[in-house]
Design brief:
The protein is of the alpha+beta class. It contains 27 helices and 31 strands. It binds (3S)-3,7-diaminoheptanoic acid and zinc ion (ZN).
C-alpha cells in the first residue's frame, strides 16, 4: 500500500484518546521472516474523549484475523492503521498479524541483529509489531508469551513461567507501548544483585552473546549499582521490580533504550574493558547506564502525555545523569564537558535551519526531534530552574512531582506547576525557555565611579525559522567580581535578568573590579563582554570559578584564531603565556589542564567567524589551527616532556577520574610533542600501550601529523575481531585525514570488507568521521558532499532514522561561500528528489533547504 503524504502534527491539535486500554496480552511465535503476533487487548471508552472513532496504529503489518468480543471483524485497513465499529462499552479486541524481523533493516519495531531478536519501540515502533493505540498517554499492563527455539526469551517486568521453547512475562506497571521490549537469542548473563533501601532483592543481568563479550560487562554492572544507590540517596527513587535486565545489541540506531525492566543498549554504550575502551568510553557508558536507569522514574513511572513533551523526560533525565557524573567524577570538568557539547551541537542546531524550541510545536517525524535542543538544552532549562529556586525548593518540587504524577502521562505545564506550587513563584515568563528557539546573546558592559560598580546586561535572541519575534527570557546570570590583585571581592552571586536590558549595581568597591560573568555556565547563552585580552588572561590565571577560568582561555584562543584567519595575526603572548602557566601549575587537576590545552574546534571557529559577518573558509581555518598548535608546541617545548613524564601511571588501569585525567593530559601533551619530534614519542606510546586510551591517543597523535601508517595496520591486525574497536579505526582515519584526503579515505573505507551499511555504528564511524573533519568535508572540489549524498540515498530505504540524522551534516550550508553553497544545495536537492524518500529524511532535507 502506498504511504500517505507526510502530515504535520501539531501540539495544539492534541485530543485525549477515544479508548483506554486496561490489559494487553501478547503471544509472539518468533520466526525470522514470519513472526506471528497474537494480541488480546481490553479496551474501554475514555470518559474524557471528544470522539468515539476506534483507530489503531499499524505500520507494515499483515493482518491474519481480527475479532471483537470473540466475533470476527473485517476492519478498514489504511497505510497507517485500522478502523472498525466497536461497542459503546468495554470490549476485547483480538488480532493475529504477521511480521518479518529478519528483513527489518530500519531497526524499529521487532528486528534481528546478528541472529538475536530485539525491539526498539520509542517513539512509534510498536505499531510495526501489532495494531495498537501507539501513543504515550495510553498506558496498560502487559502480559507476554514468547515462543521460540532459543535459550533466552526476555520481556518487560517479571518472569512468571517458562518451559523449553517458551517463556511468559508480566509487567505489573502500566506503561505506554513505546516502553515494550522483547529479546530472544543465544545469550549469556553477567549477573549480580542489588538490595534496595526498602529491602527488595533485585536480580541484575547484562546479557551478551557467548564467547565474545563476557569480559566487557563488569564495569557496566558497577555503573548500574552506583546509579541505583545514587537515585535512592539523591532523589529518593527506589527500583520497583525484582529484576533489571540490560541487553547489548550490535545494530541499534540510538545509544540505548529505557524499556521497563529490560533496557536495550547499543553494544558501544555498555561494553567496556581497559584494552578495548577509552576513558571517555568508560565515562560515557557510566552516564548512559545511569540515564536509562534514571528513566525508570523520569520517563516510565511518569511518562509524557504526547511526543511534544519529550523534553519532560529527556531534559530531566539528562540533567540527572549530569548530576550523577559530577558526583562520581568532577563537577568542574563535567560542566566544561557539557558546555562544550552544548555549544558544539545545540548552538549549531539553534543557529541554523533546524532550530526548534525545547518543546517543539509541530513535527512530521518525531524521531527527528531526539535532538541536542530537546536533550541538552532541555537539561540546561532544568539547571536554570534549580539555580533560580534554590536546591531545597528544587528537592521539594521534585518530591511533589513524583507523588503527584506517579502513573501519569504528564506535560511541561504539570512540571512547572509543581515548582509554582512549591515556591509560589510565577513561572510564566520562565516558560518561554520551552517555546522560544534560538540561543540568546547576552551583551555586558560595565562602569565604575566613586566606589559604585554597575554591570549593564542586554539580552537578544536572534530570529529562527518560523519565529521572528523573540521575547525577553528569565536568565540566571551567575557573577563574581575580582580585585585587580587577583582576590575575589564578590563571590558568586546569581543575578536574575528578566528584561531586555538591565543594570545591576554593586557598591563599596575600592577600585574597578574585573567581572567574571556567567559562572559555571549558568545559562545556555552566548556572552559577549567588552573585555580586553589582558582581562581574559587575568581570569585564566585568577578566576576562582573553574568554568570561567577555562572559558577565559577558550575565548582567548577563539579570538586569536579568528584574528589569525581574518587578519593574518600571529599568536601572541597573552594566550601562549596564559596556557603555559596553567600547564605548569601542578596544583591544578590534570583533567582541567587537558581541557585548557584543547583548542576550540574548527567548526567553532567557522561559526564564530560567521557570527562576525565573515564567510568562513574551512581550508584557511584548518591552516590557522595547525599553525597555532605548532606555536603552542614550540612555546611549551621545555615543559612538555616534564609534564608527559609526570602523567605516567604505574600500576593497574582503572577508569576513575584521577588516572583518566592524567591520561587525558598525557595524550594532550603527546599530540604537541608529536609536532616537534615527528611522532617518535607517540610511536613508543603506541608500542607500549596496555590500554585503549593510550593506544588510541598515540595513534591520533600520529595521524594528526600524517604519520602512523604502520600503527594503523597493526591496530587493524590486532583488533579486526572486535567491532567496537574497529569502529574507532574507521572513524579515526576519516576524521583525521588531511583535508584533501578525507573524501577518498571515506570512499576507500566503504570498500573495506568490514564496512557494513546496515550497521549504524559502522556507518556513523565513516560518515560521522567525514562530518567531523570540517576542512575535509568542505574541501574543493567537494567530493565529500557527493559521497555523503550517494550513501545517504543508499541508506534511506534501509534505515530512515540514521539517514535523517546523518543528513544534518549539511545543516550549515548557508554559512559558506557561493560555490560551497551551490554544491551543498545540489547534494541536498539530489537527496530530496530521490523517489520514495522516507518521511524522516524528507523532513530534514526540506527544513535544511528552507
Ligand atoms: N529514549 C531513548 C531514545 C529513543 C530514540 C528514538 N528514536 C533513549 C534515551 O534517551 O534514553
Ligand atoms: Zn533518555
Amino acid at each position: 500500500m502506498k504511504d500517505a503524504a507526510p502530515q504535520t502534527i501539531y501540539l495544539s491539535d492534541y485530543t485525549p484518546p477515544a479508548y483506554l486500554v486496561d490489559e494487553v496480552h501478547l503471544t509472539f511465535k518468533l520466526g525470522a521472516t514470519d513472526t506471528r503476533v497474537i494480541s488480546r487487548i481490553t479496551f474501554r471508552p475514555n470518559p474524557d474523549a471528544k470522539d468515539t472513532d476506534f483507530f489503531l496504529h499499524g505500520d507494515d503489518l499483515k493482518l491474519i484475523n481480527a475479532a471483537i468480543d470473540g466475533q470476527t471483524v473485517r476492519p478498514d485497513i489504511s497505510s497507517d492503521g485500522l478502523r472498525c465499529a466497536v461497542p459503546n462499552a468495554p470490549f476485547v479486541f483480538e488480532a493475529e498479524v504477521g511480521i518479518s524481523p529478519a528483513t527489518n533493516t530500519a531497526l524499529e519495531g521487532l528486528y534481528m541483529s546478528n541472529g538475536m531478536y530485539c525491539t526498539q519501540c520509542e517513539a512509534e515502533g510498536f505499531r510495526k509489531i501489532t495494531f495498537y493505540p501507539d501513543r504515550p498517554d495510553v498506558m496498560a499492563v502487559f502480559t507476554v508469551r514468547i515462543e521460540a527455539d532459543l535459550p533466552v526469551l526476555l520481556s518487560n517486568g517479571n518472569p512468571t513461567a517458562s518451559g523449553v521453547g517458551w517463556a511468559e512475562w508480566h509487567d505489573p506497571w502500566p506503561k505506554p507501548a513505546y516502553l515494550f521490549a522483547l529479546v530472544a537469542g543465544d545469550l549469556v548473563a553477567h549477573s549480580d544483585t542489588f538490595i534496595t533501601q526498602t529491602g527488595r532483592h533485585v536480580d541484575l543481568n547484562i546479557w551478551v552473546r557467548p564467547g565474545r563479550d563476557e569480559a566487557k560487562c563488569a564495569f557496566g554492572m558497577e555503573a548500574l549499582k552506583k546509579s541505583m544507590t545514587w537515585d535512592e540517596k539523591v532523589y529518593g527513587r527506589v527500583y520497583d521490580l525484582d529484576l533489571f535486565n540490560i541487553v547489548a545489541v550490535d545494530d541499534f540506531n540510538a545509544g540505548a533504550m529505557e524499556n521497563k525492566g529490560l533496557n536495550i543498549f547499543n553494544a558501544s554504550a555498555v561494553l567496556a574493558s581497559p584494552e578495548t575502551a577509552t576513558d571517555a568510553d568508560f565515562e560515557r557508558i557510566e552516564a548512559i547506564i545511569a540515564h536509562e536507569y534514571f528513566h525508570n522514574w523520569t520517563g516510565n513511572r511518569i511518562t509524557c502525555r504526547d511526543w511534544f513533551q519529550l523534553c519532560l523526560k529527556e531534559g530531566l533525565t539528562v540533567f540527572r545523569d549530569q548530576q550523577f557524573t559530577g558526583d562520581m567524577r568532577s563537577h568542574a570538568v563535567k560542566r566544561i564537558d557539557d558546555a562544550m557539547v552544548l555549544r558544539a551541537y545545540q548552538f549549531r542546531e539553534d543557529s541554523g535551519p533546524l532550530a526548534h524550541p525545547v518543546r517543539p510545536e509541530s513535527f512530521v517525524e518525531i524521531n527527528n526531534f531526539y535532538t541536542a535542543t530537546v536533550y541538552e538544552k532541555g537539561a540546561e532549562v532544568i539547571g536554570m530552574l534549580k539555580l533560580l529556586v534554590g536546591d531545597d525548593a528544587y528537592a521539594k518540587a521534585l518530591d511533589l512531582y513524583f507523588t503527584r504524577h506517579d502513573g501519569d502521562a504528564a506535560t511541561i505545564e504539570d512540571w512547572l506547576q509543581v515548582f509554582e506550587d512549591t515556591t509560589g513563584r510565577d513561572l510564566s515568563q520562565f516558560k518561554r525557555w520551552y517555546s522560544q528557539a534560538g540561543t540568546p546573546r547576552l551583551t555586558s558592559s560595565d562602569t565604575y565611579a566613586d566606589g559604585i560598580y554597575q554591570l549593564h546586561l542586554r539580552q537578544e535572541t536572534p530570529a529562527t525559522p518560523g519565529q521572528t519575534q523573540k521575547e525577553p527570557l528569565v536568565i540566571p546570570v551567575a557573577v563574581g567580581l575580582l580585585h585587580e590583585n587577583g582576590t575575589e571581592v564578590l563571590p558568586t552571586t546569581v543575578l536574575e535578568m528578566t528584561k531586555a536590558e538591565q543594570t545591576f549595581t554593586f557598591d563599596g568597591l575600592s577600585s574597578k573590579p574585573v567581572p567574571s560573568i556567567l559562572r559555571n555556565f549558568s545559562a545556555p547563552v552566548i556572552v559577549s563582554h567588552e573585555t580586553t585580552n589582558a582581562q581574559r588572561a587575568f581570569l585564566l590565571a585568577h578566576d576562582t570559578d573553574p568554568f570561567n577560568r577555562w572559558d577565559a582561555g577558550r575565548t582567548l584562543a577563539q579570538d586569536l584564531l579568528v584574528r589569525m584567519v581574518r587578519d593574518d595575526a600571529t599568536p601572541d603572548a597573552a594566550f601562549l603565556d596564559g596556557i603555559a602557566a596553567v600547564l605548569r601549575d601542578d596544583t591544578l587537576d590534570p583533567a582541567f589542564r587537558a581541557l585548557v590545552l584543547r583548542l576550540p574546534s574548527e567548526e567553532d571557529t567557522a561559526q564564530t567567524l560567521f557570527d562576525a559577518s565573515h564567510t568562513p573558509d574551512p581550508t584557511v581555518i584548518n591552516q590557522a589551527h595547525e599553525t597555532l598548535k605548532l606555536h603552542i608546541a614550540q612555546h611549551l617545548q621545555d615543559t612538555l616532556p616534564r609534564v608527559y613524564a609526570d602523567m605516567i601511571i604505574t600500576g593497574p588501569y582503572t577508569s576513575d577520574a584521577g588516572p583518566a585525567g592524567q591520561r587525558a593530559l598525557g595524550n594532550a601533551v603527546l599530540a604537541l610533542i608529536s609536532k616537534l619530534d615527528a611522532g617518535k614519542q607517540a610511536s613508543q606510546q603506541f608500542a607500549g600501550a596496555d590500554n585503549m586510551t593510550q593506544q588510541l591517543g598515540a595513534l591520533r597523535a600520529l595521524l594528526q601529523i600524517s604519520k602512523g601508517a604502520d600503527e594503523l595496520a597493526a591496530f587493524e591486525a590486532q583488533w579486526q575481531h572486535d567491532r567496537l574497536v574497529m569502529d574507532k579505526w574507521f572513524a579515526l582515519q576519516v576524521s583525521l585525514a588531511a583535508p584533501q584526503a578525507a573524501a577518498t579515505t571515506a570512499a576507500r573505507l566503504t570498500k573495506h570488507p568490514a564496512f557494513d551499511i546496515k550497521n549504524p555504528n559502522r556507518f556513523r564511524a565513516v560518515f560521522g568521521g567525514l562530518k567531523a573533519n570540517t576542512a575535509g568535508f568542505h574541501h574543493p572540489p567537494y567530493a565529500a558532499y557527493d559521497l555523503l549524498a550517494d550513501w545517504l540515498i543508499k541508506l534511506d530505504p534501509l534505515n530512515p532514522q540514521t539517514t535523517a540524522r546523518m543528513t544534518t551534516a549539511f545543516d550549515t550550508w548557508k554559512r559558506y561561500d557561493a560555490d560551497r553553497q551551490t554544491k551543498m544545495r545540489a547534494a541536498l536537492t539530489r537527496i530530496a528528489k530521490t523517489p520514495g524518500l522516507s518521511r524522516d529524511t524528507e523532513e530534514i532535507v526540506t527544513r535544511i533547504l528552507g
